[in-house]
Design goal:
By secondary structure, this protein is an alpha/beta fold. Helices cover 35% and strands 14% of the residues. β6 (164-170), α9 and β7 form a beta-alpha-beta unit.
Length: 233
Amino acid sequence: MAGAGNSSFPDALRETQTQVYVETVHQVVQQLRDGKVGAVKWNKIALVGFSIGGIIANSISAQYPSDLDAIVLHGITWDHTWIYPAFLSGLQLPAAQIDPGRWGSIHPLYQTQSTRDAREAHIFYGSFDRGILEADFYYRDFASLGAAITFAYHLVDAPEYRGPVFLGIGENDSTFCGGTRCIGQPYELYNRYPEASNHTVQVYENTGHLILMHHAGARLMEDSLHFLKAHGF
């Protein structure tokens, strides 16, 4: 995504909204199917997305239902209740303000957690190696204000998508489960994808939002790969 990782950092309000990410991935999928990447035409494409990446995958499957042959969603539900309170609990501040020497050149509306404790409270819970906290905090990425404002509007129904869909989430994902524990929220998948050929839901106990940094992360990857293999990937 633009504004993440080693990509460029365009205007963090107007140019990094969720719909921009959706259109970018849609264009990449079209190029893959048309053989414009590596001179190979891909006839089966799966999209795996975590958190906002999962939201993008959900939105693509609604807007462009024929783009994807399988969808793997990590760390989302359709419960909006605590998304923005959880976001605020991370004490997000402009990255350029937090560490001017490292991030001073980045647009001021790219934000990240200001302290390790705030990040831990926001996305960790229960069963994880505390030694991971330091590395996670150092290598943390940014959230643009444009994406933060718009992503909740892309948690949508995908009534025309007909492929298989997998959802994996930590049981204690306070961001997407409307409190301290998921109850029925992950199983909303069945209602949001009424025509999907297969629904698979896995909820991992004693695990927070940043699921791959928890002990359950290995199981999530095993389950995701098993799902994809079962559906021809």
